[in-house]
Amino acid sequence: MEISWQSPNGVVPLAGFWRIPLADALSQGQLDAHTLQHFSGEGPPPSSNDLPEFLLRVALTPEGCGWRFAVVLEAERAFQISKVRLVMPAKDGIPDAMFCNGWQSWSESREFGITERMHSPRWIARKLFHPYGDGVAVASSGKPGALHSWSWTSWPAQKSGGGGAGGAGGGGAGAGAGAGGAGAGASPWHQPNNIGFLGSLNEQDAYTCFALQARAASFTISRDIPLNWEASEQLATRPRAPFARTLLALFWAEGEEHAVYEGWFQAMSCKARPAPALTTGWTSWYRHYNRISAALLEQEMQDLAQQLPRPEWFQIDDGWQPSIGDWTSTRPSFPHGLKPLADQAKALGFKPGLWLAPFVAEKRSELLRKHPEWAERDEQGNLVPAGFNPLWSGTFYALNPDHAGLRDHLCRVFETVLDHWGFEGLKLDFLYAAGIQHREGRSRATRMRSAMQFLRDAAGDRFLLGCGVPLAPAFGLVDACRIGADVHLAWEHRLLALLRNRERVSTRLAVLTAVGRRALNGRAFANDPDVYLMRRNDPDVKLSEAEQFTLLLVNRLFGSVLFHSDAPADYPDAARTLLQNLLLPTTISAVRVLSCPAGETLAMPAEQVAVAFLGEGLLCLALLNLSDAPWSTRLETWCGVSGKATPIWYTAQQPVSGWEPIRLAPHHSSVFRLQGY
Questions:
Q1: Residue 235, Cβ neighbours under 10 Å: how many?
Q2: Which of 609, 611, 628 is nearest to 620 (CA)?
């Protein structure tokens, strides 16, 4: 454990590297609970008279299906903490892959192979899009096996017939792993998808970063804190000294994926807001972008009202406001304001929703001209850039979410939009800007969580869809949240991919991240994987019919919010029939990603995914090839050798047997209804 404290003369490390042998390894792809428990206890105070006396209390206690691991600092007097970092040698027990959760909604978040590179953006992307990503807190080296994840991480557990380490009551995080079936040689269909898991329990104080250096065989857990950190959680459990700070609070478990995530959210005492099984809607963005007008939207509403299936929400996206930051007036293309559109939506049976970005503003905005004191400032007093958007005026700037004047103003904005104009829900975008920098001893995470709580309080019980937000601060506060990148009208945005921007517009990143963050759905909020697109008569849409189906299927399997941005009148009959089936809340349930079978080698495990689920109450298997290479597999690999399978929804083929090869082209997916399994 490395801790530093802030003195008048600068940062002084407390006894340098103060090592606690908390764990020997990520052995066998998992933390060794016996080793952690053995080394739990108390650390001695430093011997130097020049350093404040302190005590580290390290505790490992059973917590549901796993363990709660806490490091608490106690001292006789208060002092400022400036670095918290726990380094554990990984030795020869490094797992084959690690899930890496990105900085915010749009950040690439998926399972990385242990030899993969997590590239940093190229210099021009760093200059333009630096605030979007985790470069504000950590710089990726780009070396093979140098991986990091925010707030939580997981890794594939060892394939075995038994479970993982024992949890509370002797049951164990992996207890029952073989229930219902099967030893190590059985198909994944009959075995749970076991994972090892580490998640933070106090992201309201500071973000937690889990970093693996595969070549150095080390695993590091650190906190993103300012030099003069003033943690909000001042009291630990039964502190023995006047000053106490929780430096680390983690949940560790190994076992079936569903049970592990349930255990984590229970340990955080976090519940999602009540939500329907499926929320549908239409948004103006991917059809018109910011080129919208009242007349155009009136016509879109009339057209949507005549088509089936009807969306629940009609959402007006970016393009109605005169400038970013000015939310109580409209552009000349909306001569009567937005209230008539909200009224028309409700008259036609839609719920009206509106997009805005409460914590950013353009320099030309009336808000910044009249209230420059509401802007976020750096130490030199300069405006803090929040990013670059070519559809706006270029660089835009962060607002100070803690400023009382801004908060009062935003309360009036919400009152205008929700109470006077009549909108029933808000899509709140670019929210990461509320936590770009530490300020006055408060960490980015603390400021972000405070901002999210303010938005919820200001909106009351109205529907909130968060977007462009670090996810942990949004847990339990927004009704729904974007969990991936903006989709593109092609599979990949080639220019942004060349720039290596991890928050880029990209259908590929959108579907990969929807798979990676699947377990948040219904636990943290309703997952919004972004829109599906089914239109085929638009020359700007480069997604093939097969890619459109893959996008729709991934969104439906792993999300609860399904919006589109099409004109359904132009859909072919097959697309309309498919949507009428898939958009029923009862069509898909009991979704479970299957673990990679023993002896099977997937060229790209994060991009070649098998999913078991109930489709209209019957056993189904979806094979998703999200990669740029063909994928050849067999049903027996995933489900065993018996039975047959009938392709449904997209491909009209004859039933296939378990041993027959199935070949999926890049970005293609197939769904099978199983018989005899």
A1: 11
A2: 611
Q: Which residue has the tokens 């801004």?
A: 406
The structure tokens 């003069």 sit at 228
What is the mean pLDDT of the segment spanning 350-357?
Answer: 98
Q: Higher-confidence residue: 604 or 388?
A: 388
Closest by alpha carbon to 94, among 39, 143, 145, 138? 145
Name the residue among 199, 176, 173, 175 with its Cα closest to residue 253.
173
- Report how far residue 442's alpha carbon sits from residue 206's, in angstroms, rounded to the nearest whole number: 9
pLDDT tens, residue by residue, 293-319: 999 999 999 999 999 899 999 999 999
Rounded-to-integer distance, Cα 239 and Cα 455, Å: 33
Sign of the alpha-carbon dihedral angle for 226, 131, 111, 257 = positive
Those residues with Cβ within 8 angstroms of residue 332's Cβ, 6 or more apart along the chain or in another chain? none
Give me the pLDDT at residue 12, please.
41
Token digits of residue 261:
């995530």
Residue 629 has a pLDDT of 96
Per-chain mean pLDDT for the chain: 86
Do the beta carbons of residue 67 and residue 253 sit within 8 Å? yes
The pTM assigned to this predicted structure is 0.90
List, in order, residues 6 or more apart from 429 with CB less than 8 Å away. 318, 355, 356, 357, 467, 468
What's the Rg (C-alpha) of the chain?
Answer: 25
Cβ(446)–Cβ(430) under 8 Å?
A: no
User: Residue 293 and residue 291: Cα distance in Å, rounded?
Assistant: 7
User: Residue 428: left if φ>0, alpha if ψ -120 to 50, beta else—which one?
Assistant: beta
Token pair for residue 515?
A: 């798979």
Largest interatomic CA distance in the chain? 80
Helices (H) and strands (E) in the chain — how many of each? 14, 33
User: What span, in angstroms and rounded, lies between the C-alpha atoms of 151 and 223?
Assistant: 10
Lowest model confidence (mean pLDDT) among 29-38, 42-51, 82-91: 29-38
pLDDT tens-digit profile of 527-538? 999 999 999 889
**Residue 659 pLDDT class (50, 70, 90 cuts):** confident
**In degrees, to the nearest 5, what angle opens at C-alpha 446 toward C-alphas 443 and 451?**
125
User: pLDDT value at position 175?
Assistant: 26
The residue type found at 164 is: G
Find the helix packing angle between 573-582 and 545-558, rounded to 10°. Answer: 10
Residue 477: pLDDT over 90: yes
Burial of 79 (0-12, 13-18, 19+ CB in 10 A): middle
Q: How many angstroms separate the Cα of 358 from the Cα of each of 328, 361, 650, 659?
A: 12, 8, 41, 55
Residue 134's identity, in one-letter code, is D
Q: How far apart are CA 243 and CA 234, in angstroms?
A: 7
Distance CA 71, CA 248 (A): 5
Closest CA to 348 of 409, 301, 404, 288: 301
Strands 631-634 and 644-647: unpaired
